[in-house]
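User: Sequence recovery, please. Input:
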């Protein structure tokens, strides 16, 4: 039997798990794999988790709690463990499978039902609607604008030019897709471009431009990071930002020290003025709240 697989957006995964330890990230990955394996949420069973995590029941329960606290796993109304991204992927997979099965029963999606068969069918319009769905027609049905070959979305080139350079090639295809999604939501391109410029200036001061520490442009757009740099009311559709617990702050400061001063999170690092790390957490590491230099320098 051919093994199943799924596509992984590794940039989004790395960014989304930056606050997790390697052990917790491994547990998260194995839970997601099992959800894909059984096709949905899994039982909230410590014995099951012991097998997935290859550890004792106390450690398995602790790993699950960390994933729940981080918002990576949730408990459904009927007590099962679920993950929103896995649920969406499984639903899309089921919809695609259903479309292909119906298209196969009607003669395929490329050519549809033969013209002679349609002429003999009293429900010709329904047959055409069900079978003659090319990829372009599907996109138009979803109100997705078709971009002419070689054309750029409005102001996307300006965003691309303003965005700080990374150690890898700029992900033009994925970034353009995220840009188009932002425009469809009604996000302000002026704010996005301005945010990209401010982000580039910030990373330039930190000497991170041209390194792997620059966030990929498509991930930056997907997370609407321009809102971190450009003042203005957040859009109603912006995802809620969960408060950061002291334990999470402690993990970040510990990681910052272990990485030799690399700070990939929002705001200045713990040893610079304006840091968002609570004073109590800094004190626990023998640090004090950094004071701004005289004269605003």
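Assistant: Recovered sequence (297 residues):
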């Amino acid at each position: 039997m051919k093994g199943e697989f799924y596509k992984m957006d590794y940039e989004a995964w790395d960014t989304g798990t930056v606050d997790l330890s390697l052990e917790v990230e491994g547990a998260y990955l194995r839970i997601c794999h099992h959800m894909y394996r059984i096709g949905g949420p899994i039982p909230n069973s410590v014995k099951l988790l012991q097998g997935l995590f290859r550890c004792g029941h106390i450690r398995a329960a602790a790993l699950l709690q960390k994933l729940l606290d981080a918002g990576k796993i949730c408990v459904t109304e009927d007590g099962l463990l679920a993950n929103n991204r896995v649920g969406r992927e499984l639903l899309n997979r089921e919809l695609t499978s259903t479309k292909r099965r119906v298209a196969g029963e009607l003669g395929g999606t490329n050519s549809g039902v033969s013209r002679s068969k349609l002429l003999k069918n009293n429900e010709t319009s329904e047959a055409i609607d069900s079978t003659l769905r090319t990829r372009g027609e599907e996109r138009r049905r979803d109100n997705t604008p078709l971009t002419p070959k070689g054309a750029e979305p409005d102001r996307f080139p300006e965003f691309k030019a303003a965005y700080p350079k990374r150690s890898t090639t700029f992900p033009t295809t994925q970034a353009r897709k995220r840009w188009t999604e932002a425009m469809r939501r009604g996000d302000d391109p002026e704010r996005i471009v301005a945010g990209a410029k401010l982000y580039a200036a910030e990373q330039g001061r930190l000497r991170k431009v041209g390194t792997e520490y620059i966030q990929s442009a498509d991930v930056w757009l997907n997370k609407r990071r321009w809102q971190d740099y450009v003042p203005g009311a957040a859009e109603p559709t912006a995802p809620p930002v969960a408060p950061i617990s002291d334990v999470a702050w402690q993990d970040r400061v510990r990681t910052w020290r272990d990485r030799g001063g690399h700070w990939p999170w929002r705001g200045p690092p713990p040893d610079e003025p304006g840091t968002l790390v609570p004073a109590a957490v800094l004190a626990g590491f023998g640090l004090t709240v950094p004071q701004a230099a005289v004269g605003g320098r």
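The longest strand covers residues 80-82.
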